[in-house]
Amino acid sequence: MSAGPALTRRPAVSRRTRAVGLVRALRPRQWVKNGLVLAAPLAAGELFTPAGARAALIAFAAFCLAASGAYLINDAADADADRQHPRKRHRPVASGLIPVPLARVAGALLAVSAPAVAALTGGWRLPAVVAAYLALTLGYTFWLKRQPVVDLVAVAACHVVRAFAGAVAVGVPVTSWFLVVISLGSLQLVAGKREAERRAQTGSATRATLAAYSPAYLAQVRTMCSGAMIVTYCLWALNDHPGPFHGLSIVPFVLVVLRHNLLVDRGAGEEPEELALRDRPLQIFIAVQLALLVLGIHLT
User: Fold this and answer.
1) What b-and-e string marks burial along 22-52, b requiring 16 or more CB atoms within 10 Å of the CB?
2) DSSP category for residue 268
């Protein structure tokens, strides 16, 4: 008579290994996205003043806490689905390295601490923006990501909120030009991400809305955003800015957009932050654009 299948037990995980796994689950590489909080202070020339730099760094830290908390909560909610994904199954929560209850508790603690850190700016506006960001990310985790098209806009809106928070932190007005460029750029990144995920998909879709999108539709969204964003940036750079530097920044800006589209067409873009961290031409184009903007702010 068969004794039945042997029971297997997962090897004990050391505290050090679990701590390393928890740090990985915070996704520190994705903190690159939080650099958007520096965009408005840089454009307004406030980033290099002591008060502006302090407020911008506080906003950056608050969004790192908020984003990592949201990632942990999202990974806990998606653990079962992530185990079916060829790449996501290796994430600390999906792999079992970090227990789901621990991920939930750690995520909640980080989410609560984010508005508290934002309050170090001395006002209520930045904590309110951080709280709105958390509400949006939680809404995405538990509902919005299952709604086609809405999920694209929700993820793009998270990037826009980051950029808006930078303006709130340093107390500068947000222009319509700024919001339009950031919104279109964010939507382009999200469409490219979904397009890369769609191409890499094997078997059944592990993302709820992925099957609703065709590669042609996502490419059309990306193309629409690219064209509209370039036109908007050109109008902003060529109006009300004395000196040549803002106008010259159009060239590297267009190169950034074209380079991103090329990389997505090649199959990259599933992790947009990896493009910024690894693609040397993209890094050079971004650096040149930032240098020209800084020169335009301080020399004209």
Assistant:
1) bebbbbeebbebbbbbbbbbbbbbbbeeeeb
2) -
Give the pTM.
0.88
Find, among 158, 143, 18, the residue nearest to 74 by Cα. Answer: 143
In contact, 88 and 202? CB cutoff 8 Å: no
Q: Under a CB-based contact definition with an 8 Å cutoff, are residues 130 and 63 in contact?
A: yes
Q: Tell me the pLDDT of the chain averaged across its residues.
A: 90
- Does residue 5 carry a pLDDT above 90? no
| Amino acid, single-letter form, for residue 123 | G
Side-chain-facing half-sphere of 143: CA atoms under 13 Å: 4
Handedness of CA 275, 276, 277, 279 (dihedral sign): positive
State the alpha helices, DSSP H only, in the chain: 15-25, 39-43, 50-77, 79-82, 100-118, 125-142, 150-170, 176-200, 215-238, 245-248, 250-265, 272-278, 280-298
Size of the chain, expressed as the number of residues it contains? 300
Give the span between the Cα atoms of 294 and 18, in whole angstroms. 43
Within the chain, what is the greatest distance between any pair of CA atoms? 89
Choose from 31-45, 50-64, 186-200, 208-222 the range with maximum mean pLDDT: 50-64
